Amino acid sequence: MTTMAAAPTITMRPYRKQGKIDYARLDFDPYKLVLKPEAMDQERPIHAILGLLANRFTDFEQSPDTFLSSNTIICYDPTNLNVRVSPDVYLAFGVDAAAIRQRKLYLPWEVGKPPDWVLEIGSSSTGPEDVGRKRDIYARIGVPEYWRFDPQDGAYHGAKLAGDRLVAGRYEPIALTTAPDSILKGYSAVLGLSLCWDDNWPRLYDPSTGTYLESWPEVWEAREAAEVQAAVEQAERLAERAAREAAEHRAASEQAARLAAEARIRQLEAELRHRQADRD
Q1: What is the C-alpha separation between 17 and 110, in angstroms, rounded?
Q2: Measured between alpha carbons, how far apart are the two ends of the chain, in Å?
Q3: Angle between helix 39-53 and helix 216-279 axes, rounded to 10 deg
Q4: Is the whole model's pTM more than 0.90, yes or no?
Q5: How many CB atoms lie within 10 A of CB 68?
Q6: Confidence bin at 193 (pLDDT 50/70/90)
């Protein structure tokens, strides 16, 4: 199983709640996920990258200082919560994940920072937005890295894979490479990993080890295999203990039977001596 990497060394920022949210006045329902027209086309690569990130950085939402989410709302105007954007996948380090989830909205001025990493998966209806309006929004609110992944050979984004790094308030393209194995990839300094486009499928590559991270089905299979193996080993230990105790019980029973037999023999010998003495 892939060992979970530690998130960047950042002290968890205190969550500074700024009053109650009047959810009734919002023109959307933060409790309700609104599916995009091509949700079925996007869900498999989204789930794949979510699983990889969850295993690597949040231990499947067990890390309190790392927030990972999909298709939830980021509000970026504190005067109007209806001004919003919804990334396909986003990740923030050094934040109070539980407090964010309680608010049902990602509010950068309360969280203390924007997300560190955002990914959009291309589709026919969202592709132009991903390379235009959303890119401008993420730069404006200060997202350090913004990535686009196109599951249709670049038909939606004009490129199979693209990443931008925020420099002095503006996005600059992240260089892509196919080294060392002909798979297209770009290095994310935020993740310490490379995001890869592998035959329309997202993967994460660790250049420090030269290996790809396991997909979430592989992670769960490994966990389940480990649990099964642990159960087998526990059963074997219990069986060995039972066998040992049974052997000890048999040995004790045999010793008791032997002592009883020896005592009976001594008793019979004594009776025989008495009878012999009486005859004499």
Answers
A1: 6
A2: 88
A3: 50
A4: no
A5: 21
A6: very high
